[in-house]
From TrEMBL:
Protein's GO biological process: DNA metabolic process
Top-rank taxon, per record: Bacteria
Protein name: RecT
Source lineage: Bacteria, Bacillati, Bacillota, Bacilli, Lactobacillales
Region (Disordered): 204-258
Amino acid sequence: MKSAPVQARFQEVLGKKSSGFVSSLLTVVNNNNLLKRATPDSIMTAAMKAATLDLPIEPSLGFAYIIPYGQEAQFQIGYKGLIQLALRSGQITGLNSGIVYKSQFISYDPLFEELEIDFMQPEDEVVGYFASMKLSNGFMKVVYWTKARVENHKKRFSKAGAKSPWATDFDAMAQKTVLKAMISKFAPLSQEMQIAVIADNESETLEPKDVTPEQPLISIDEPKENENSQSQISIPEDQAPQQENEEFVEELFPVGQA
């Protein structure tokens, strides 16, 4: 981290924010014994992905993480990071996701994607998860996955074990999965978002040795000025690997229903 080439690279990507980012990186590594075991090259690669996306890596902020997978460190985007990158496009005016409970669920029409929920009812058994989006051109999208569908996705794509976020924070990971599926297929994708989704897809298939903090439910509506600021949640994701991209499309649009 103290070498001139490394400092120059972060300076090139982050400008005046490079010193703060480097300090944050050193703090993250020093405070995580498992991350200390990862190779320096893998830590630098993961950190550079976060720097390129202009996302802070402090775990408490929830934008991006550097996660130890044995001796390899991997970049993983957080719940807020997905939203941050999506909002940066300037074309999204509303973005939300959440949990659907059995007592609140009324109906869902997959043909026209009409989801009816009574949020006045008490929270009880979780039956599904939703994500919704509004674009400035008037386009609106709602995606709803049952809990069983999310569990099938987890089994299909995630090789994570008992210590993974899927095991400790299933609802948070489920919301992130549905949100990512919607954004990566239906939102205007910047190059940043494509990079983030690809990197997150790669980390899904690895066996984590540490967990990330739970991501809170985020709801953004009508973002105002200063949308490019990191200090607020503004419009933060695909050329995902071809196989997974096709599998996502298949899940959202089954053959014969596209």
